[in-house]
Write a structure and sequence with these properties.
By secondary structure, the chain is α+β, with helices and mostly antiparallel strands. It folds into two domains: about 1-30; about 35-280, Immunoglobulins (Immunoglobulin-like), CATH 2.60.40.10. The protein is built from five helices and 13 strands. The strands form four sheets. Strands 6, 9, 10, 12 and 13 form a five-stranded antiparallel β-sheet that branches. Strands 2-1-3 form a three-stranded mixed β-sheet, sandwiched between helices. The protein is globular and about 55 Å long. Residues about 1-40 have low confidence and may be disordered.
């Protein structure tokens, strides 16, 4: 009887071992990545959608951006930048203005001049990808984002927010950890975005094409540390270098709904302007970014 029981146990163990082995061969199981202050070596991507409320083709681009946001989750950060001719106030149907100093500066000829090419257009990591270009139509965004997310991981960013809702004062800490050495100076830009803004929008796919209750997402609301940010780390930068910077006493405009606000930080090459890493965090999340 004992020998019979031992054989059964050994057979079961062998069966389990074989099944596990087959699972490893046919369907590899990967451990979930636990976010950390180095983003578990994930190169996150910034997608900037240059748009305007009188641009009838822009809602379609916004749908592409939203679809990519859902596809990539936390690894893709979208900025809807209202700038250029189609972002101007146009009475009586388009009384609101969603333009910002930062957005106008980025869109100027001395910046990237995106709206001069036409809206909708955008940039992925502010990098000129071969065959796709720097300024791209929304039809190229999916391909370019897929390329960008596989770019070399250079650094991770971690955000820590301290927000006083009564005074609407925000203190932000940004910590950067470099995985590899880098030969150019690196800057960091902090901006605010707001979701679920209801307003007027032209949409050529609708009839009539004036949509009075359009829902705007990822809207750039302004920069916390200036249009072009501030120094993060100057070269030479070595692997494992770490830096922490604070931006204190920024007052949130009373017109913005703090429950719908997100702080976005992106580190970029001071010379080429390429975005090297991006991180975001809800204003009222009460935690550090992941």
């Amino acid at each position: 009887m004992k020998a019979h029981r031992i054989n059964i146990i050994l057979t079961c163990i062998a069966g389990l071992w074989l099944n596990t082995s087959c699972d490893k061969i046919n369907t590899p199981i990967q451990s979930p990545q636990t976010p950390s202050d180095t983003n578990v070596f994930v190169r996150k991507v910034l997608l900037e959608d240059y748009t305007g409320h009188t641009c009838g083709n822009c809602p379609n681009a916004a749908k592409v951006a939203e679809s990519l946001s859902e596809q990539y989750g936390e690894n893709l950060v979208v900025l809807a930048v209202h700038a250029g001719f189609f972002a101007k106030v146009k009475l009586p149907n388009y009384p609101a203005s969603y333009t910002t100093t930062a957005g106008n500066d980025w869109d100027a000829t001395s910046g990237f001049g995106v709206s001069n090419v036409g809206n909708p257009n955008g940039m992925v990591n502010r990098k000129n990808y071969e065959n796709n270009g720097l300024i791209q139509k929304e039809t190229k965004w999916p391909t370019t984002v897929a390329l960008a997310i596989n770019d070399t991981y250079i650094l991770g960013l971690k955000l820590k927010l301290n927000y006083n809702a009564s005074t609407r004062t925000l203190n932000t800490n940004v910590k950067a950890n470099f995985k590899i050495g880098y030969s150019n100076n690196v800057k960091v830009n902090l901006v605010l975005t707001e979701d679920s803004i209801i307003g007027d929008q032209t949409d050529y796919t609708k009839s009539p094409d004036h949509i009075p209750d359009y829902v705007f997402m990822h809207v750039l609301r302004g920069a916390i540390n200036g249009s072009w940010g501030t120094d993060l780390k100057n070269a030479p930068i070595n692997a494992s270098d770490s830096v922490s910077v604070d931006f204190n006493n920024f007052v949130i405009d009373s017109k913005f709904k703090d429950k719908q606000l997100t702080v976005v930080a992106f580190a970029y090459d001071a010379l080429t302007k390429e975005v090297l890493q991006v991180e975001k965090m809800k204003l009222l999340s009460n935690s550090v970014s992941k």
